[in-house]
């Protein structure tokens, strides 16, 4: 079993050497159990690769129980790899998960695997790897599904092809990660929220936000959210929204539902 993750700050900037901040989503989990059968199991290419990498034979049934939405930037593939490896009692789970992420995504940073393996928020960079970033805001975070599958490879390619034009926005996203850390430790959710809105505007300028991301952020803002932004690769996927009370979080959730957006409330 393991949990989902969300990128709080630094998506896309982390690709270019800046730091990113991720958080565990303990309320969203995947659990895997194995059952020996007498028939060859039908698996898609991703699950087949994971099974082969974990030395699970073709007659073993892999039962997956997950509350993590797929293709929404919440680390579902990394979490699945970890859960399958753990179900087989594999010692070096991280290596297995990294190999599977490379198969699925091509050249991942490693940020997803590190966070789904950790119960604490992380500060991550390609150069320094992951380190625990201890903070607790005593607040509520909405994980909002836009209903649009975001293809991270496409947004990464878009920025790479236009990097000279976008460099200043990438730089500013990277600076936000460094600047927001003291406010996270001080539980200053007003300033943290401002940085979330600022980050979303920069991601818009990078051309990786979708109209659904923008609509979600606007709904959150109109309902007095402290902050909101897309999370992950963008072009749809999920947004996150910070609220100082459960009542307000539920109010925002209801407003989003009226517009057709599903969401989950987690603690942060």
UniProtKB/TrEMBL annotation:
Family the UniProt entry places it in: Belongs to the GHMP kinase family. Mevalonate kinase subfamily.
EC number annotated for this UniProt entry: 2.7.1.36
Pathway note: Isoprenoid biosynthesis; isopentenyl diphosphate biosynthesis via mevalonate pathway; isopentenyl diphosphate from (R)-mevalonate: step 1/3
Subcellular location: Cytoplasm
GO biological process: isopentenyl diphosphate biosynthetic process, mevalonate pathway
Pfam families linked to this entry: GHMP_kinases_C, GHMP_kinases_N
Annotated NCBIfam families: mevalon_kin (TIGR00549)
InterPro entries membership: GHMP_kinase_C_dom (IPR013750), GHMP_kinase_C_sf (IPR036554), GHMP_kinase_N_dom (IPR006204), GHMP_knse_ATP-bd_CS (IPR006203), Mev_gal_kin (IPR006205), Ribosomal_Su5_D2-typ_SF (IPR020568), Ribsml_uS5_D2-typ_fold_subgr (IPR014721)
Residue ranges occupied by any GHMP kinase N-terminal domain in the UniProt entry: 47-113
The protein, known as: mevalonate kinase
Principal localisation: cytoplasm
Organism of derivation: Gemella bergeri ATCC 700627
Signal sequence range: none
Domain of life (superkingdom): Bacteria
GO CC terms of this entry: cytosol
Keywords assigned by UniProt, alphabetized: ATP-binding, Cytoplasm, Kinase, Lipid biosynthesis, Lipid metabolism, Magnesium, Nucleotide-binding, Transferase
GHMP kinase C-terminal domain ranges (all copies): 181-262
A GO MF label: ATP binding
